[in-house]
Specification:
InterPro entries: MBL_superfamily_lactonases, Metallo-B-lactamas, RibonucZ/Hydroxyglut_hydro. GO terms for molecular function: hydrolase activity; metal ion binding. Belongs to the metallo-beta-lactamase superfamily. The protein has 250 residues and is an alpha/beta fold. The protein has 2 domains: 119 residues, Metallo-beta-lactamase, Chain A, CATH 3.60.15.10; 115 residues, Ribonuclease Z/Hydroxyacylglutathione hydrolase-like (Metallo-beta-lactamase, Chain A, 4-Layer Sandwich), CATH 3.60.15.10. It is 26% helix and 18% strand. The strands form 2 sheets. The protein has a 5-stranded mixed beta sheet. The chain has a 5-stranded mixed beta sheet with strand order 6-7-8-9-10, sandwiched between helices. A hairpin with a 4-residue loop joins strand 8 and strand 9. The longest helix is centred in the last third of the chain and has 16 residues. The termini are far apart.
Length: 250
């Protein structure tokens, strides 16, 4: 059970990965999903006790890209929203990519605690050499809710840093699509109204519950202003519908 007032039932939360094709920079990924080892290796058994993983080997990002005819070396940039296993798990498939972290996520990477659940073995050996650290500290009238970083200096991708589930989660605002991709700021947009009824165990999963609540209030404000929002654990059908609609409007 996650929230008071919701009937106890089995729920599935996809580990969302977003493929973006920038008009000049080419392909970039927002997160990389799980590595299959998280499901099969004994050493990750403690993780699976708290977070049961349902996947096959072909659910890995390397297979999903291959099905689209995209080679790993065609991915030029990878934005890791934060460093939990369902976000960095597939990073090792991209040793030639440039990785992007917010300053806050990088600080956690350098001095992680057990609760941060950072399994660095899923990162490529070239990770630190190919790393860009950004500070979301610019004011932009296009997205007045939070300071952002203009990722490529062309206004196409604004990155906000939001605490809560994890410190400094990178959230992407795409002005051309009026779309916010908001990491793990909530369990799912359909569950957003129940946030303040979160039970004890799911509360303990959050890095900071008070910041988590503030993050969901930020989402509510953005939604009220007509910006479309998807989060990493939204149902696949919802994400696909919104992306399809945005693509056809572009």
């Amino acid at each position: 059970m996650l929230f008071k007032g919701i009937k106890n039932k089995k729920m599935t939360f996809p580990a969302g990965v977003f493929l973006i094709k920038h008009r000049e920079k080419g392909y970039l990924l927002y997160d990389t999903g799980y590595h299959y080892d998280i499901k099969t290796q004994i050493r990750y058994g403690f993780y699976r006790l708290g977070t049961p993983v349902q996947m096959t080997e072909k659910d890995q990002i390397s297979y999903l890209l291959k099905a689209k005819g995209i080679k790993p070396e065609e991915i030029n940039y990878i934005i890791l929203s934060h460093l939990h296993p369902d976000h960095l798990g597939g990073a090792s498939f991209f040793p030639h990519a440039t990785f992007i972290l917010t300053q806050e996520v990088y600080d956690v990477y350098k001095k992680p605690t057990l609760k941060d659940l950072i399994f660095k073995e899923f990162l490529p050996a070239s990770f630190e050499k190919n790393l860009i650290i950004i500070r979301a500290d610019q004011q932009d009238s296009t997205f007045p809710y939070r300071p952002t970083s203009d990722l490529f200096g062309d206004g196409s991708i604004l990155v906000a840093s939001v605490d809560g589930h994890a410190r400094g989660q990178a959230c992407l605002y795409l002005p051309d699509f009026n779309l916010l991709i908001a990491a793990d700021l909530c369990w799912g947009i359909d569950l957003l109204p129940y946030t303040k009824q979160m039970l004890l165990i799911p509360s303990l999963v959050q890095d900071n519950k008070a910041d988590y609540i503030k993050g969901t209030e930020f989402l509510e404000e953005v939604l009220r202003d007509g910006i479309e929002v998807v989060v990493s654990h939204d149902p696949v059908e919802r994400i696909e519908r919104i992306i399809y609609e945005k693509r056809n409007l572009s």
